[in-house]
């Protein structure tokens, strides 16, 4: 049975989702609707990263097109960078929104 998300995790995830898709943002399109993608780097076989290691991706960049992470992780990474670098970018954006 999956562990229940804490209130702090829920607040973080909501704030990340409100940022909009980070790939669309990098393309100059802010505020696109986003789904949360748990990064899959350094998590091991079948394990999911923590609820603090999520990046916001629109459906097109997450799962529903040839450009999506889940369609081709290698192609996505070659074009947009590693999930870890997108996580760092996301956290930077989040810090700017909280501080500004």
Topology:
Blueprint: H1 7-18, H2 22-26, E1 35-38, E2 54-57, H3 59-62, H4 73-80, H5 83-99
Antiparallel strand pairs: 1-2
Structure description:
The protein has helices at residues 7-18, 22-26, 59-62, 73-80, 83-99; strands spanning 35-38, 54-57. The protein is built from five helices and two strands; from the N terminus they run ααββααα. The N and C termini lie far apart (39 Å). Strands 1-2 form a two-stranded antiparallel ribbon. The radius of gyration is 13 Å and the shape is globular. The longest helix has 17 residues, at 83-99. With 100 residues, the chain is mainly alpha-helical. The chain has one domain (7-99): Herpes Virus-1.
Shape: globular
- Round the mean pLDDT to the nearest integer and report it: 89
CATH topology: Herpes Virus-1
Strand content: 5-15%
Which labels suit this protein?
Herpes Virus-1; 100 residues; 2 strands; two-stranded antiparallel ribbon; mainly alpha
Compact description:
The protein has one domain (about 5-100): Herpes Virus-1 (2-Layer Sandwich).
